[in-house]
Amino acid sequence: MLKVVGISTSLLKTKVAPIMRLDDGYIKSISEAGALPIMLPVYENLENAEEIVAELDAIILAGGVDISPFYYDEDPVMVTTYQPERDASEMMLLKAALKRKIPILAVCRGLQLTNIALGGSLHQDLKMSGYEDVVHHRDTVKADGPDEVYHFIKIDKDSKFYSLMNKEEMVVNSIHHQAIKELGKGLKPVAWSRDGIIEVAEMEDYPYYIGFQFHPERLTVDANHGNEFKKLFKDFIRSIDL
Question: How many CB atoms lie within 10 A of CB 207?
């Protein structure tokens, strides 16, 4: 039977009506891995999150806008933008997924959300926190808005991620201005950028969780690493039956 993977969506507010949207890379990556991707809409109050997650075999917490710093007891800085509706919706989905112990991939915002849910906090802006001098994590120069940059990460050999990539260092994409500051309980960092930012984390005592600060769904089409990241998504789907 075809496995079903729920993927959280972004909320784009327009003058006509709000639009739910999702990077096509997630859809292609899951489809090519042999499962059915389902877009999960943003609800302002997702009281039936457990019922929704009960219909899923696995879940992806996708990238997107910042998360409200009120969740980790900080006032927002001027460059922080967040959507309370999406924050509340995804927090409930994540908690329901953790309760059911289904496989989870968390991408960029998704990793940050997990960290907050487990009691951690974020650098609200890397430049304001003293980063960006050694490694650039986002291109903010282009006239049409932020775009990907690329940098090295170092991978812990004692990790699931290393077993899939089979290398201690590699180049990944990057399009974020926030990152993990205080680590949430139960998360284990397994890869770092050269300036010490956590780029990949796994979860202790959980069947299958990998969180990325970069975007593996975009790297599946990369000339150098595409096959490696396609293997990652296949492993994610394969884990459903373990």
Answer: 12
Query: What pLDDT, in 10s, does the model give residues 191-237?
Result: 999 999 999 999 999 999 999 999 999 999 987 888 999 999 999 99
Mean of the pLDDT values across residues 38-64? Answer: 92
CA distance 84 to 44: 8
Instruction: Pick the closest to residue 171 from 209, 223, 211 (CA basis).
Output: 223
- Residues marked active site are found at 108, 215, 217
As a CATH number, domain 4-241 is 3.40.50.880
How far apart CA 139 and CA 176 sit, in angstroms, is 9
Q: How many angstroms separate the CA atoms of 190 and 230, rounded?
A: 20
For the chain, the domains span 4-241
Distance between CA atoms of 172 and 183, rounded to whole angstroms? 22
